[in-house]
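Structure first, sequence second, as always.
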């Protein structure tokens, strides 16, 4: 497997561990948070990647909400079915006939060869859980917001994989948001990824 480029995530999470209310990807973000575009080093993160990978479900949710946080980055959609894409959104579909680890590893290898840069794994927890279970995520940035949701989509879904992470940086914002950045231990400790 080609591991020249990292797979990164950048997420917002409630204090009790949820990334969204069920069926509601963005409205739960409280007014206390800065606009994403203007804070949390979001632009710096977005500029550090060459492309974005999302699920078809998350893509549909973004289209319905008129939110497109990826700027002009090329967007790749992992999905098991065909989608109708808006003509103004650049997207290259990657079809995965089975939701198993081998398909995700093959898709990542193809992306790394095609993009020549780091990859942003964005969106709902299902894609993060699949990639996490295969040890395919190299860096995680989580913004913990001072709100509890009680119910919703958990950050890492039902992932049962034990993995070590090294704290790379943390920032505490005046509005109570804490940003933590972790690098996978396999990426830090080994000259080549496992």
């Amino acid at each position: 497997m080609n591991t020249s480029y990292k797979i990164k995530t950048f997420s917002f999470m409630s204090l009790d561990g949820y990334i969204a209310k069920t069926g509601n990807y963005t409205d739960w973000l409280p007014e206390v948070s800065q606009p994403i575009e203007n804070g949390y080093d979001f632009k710096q993160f977005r500029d550090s990647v060459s492309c974005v990978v999302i699920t078809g479900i998350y893509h549909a949710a973004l289209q319905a909400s008129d939110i497109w946080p990826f700027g002009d980055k090329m967007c790749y959609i992992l999905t098991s079915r065909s989608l109708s894409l808006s003509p103004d959104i650049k997207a290259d579909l990657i079809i995965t006939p089975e939701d198993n680890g081998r398909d995700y590893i093959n898709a990542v290898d193809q992306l790394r060869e095609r993009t020549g840069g780091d990859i942003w794994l964005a969106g709902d927890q299902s894609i993060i859980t699949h990639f996490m279970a295969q040890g395919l995520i190299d860096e995680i940035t989580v913004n913990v917001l001072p709100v509890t949701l009680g119910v919703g989509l958990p950050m890492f879904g039902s992932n049962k994989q034990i993995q070590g992470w090294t704290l790379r940086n943390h920032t505490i914002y005046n509005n109570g948001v804490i940003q933590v950045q972790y690098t996978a231990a396999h990426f830090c400790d080994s000259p080549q990824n496992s």
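Margin note: The chain has five helices and ten strands.
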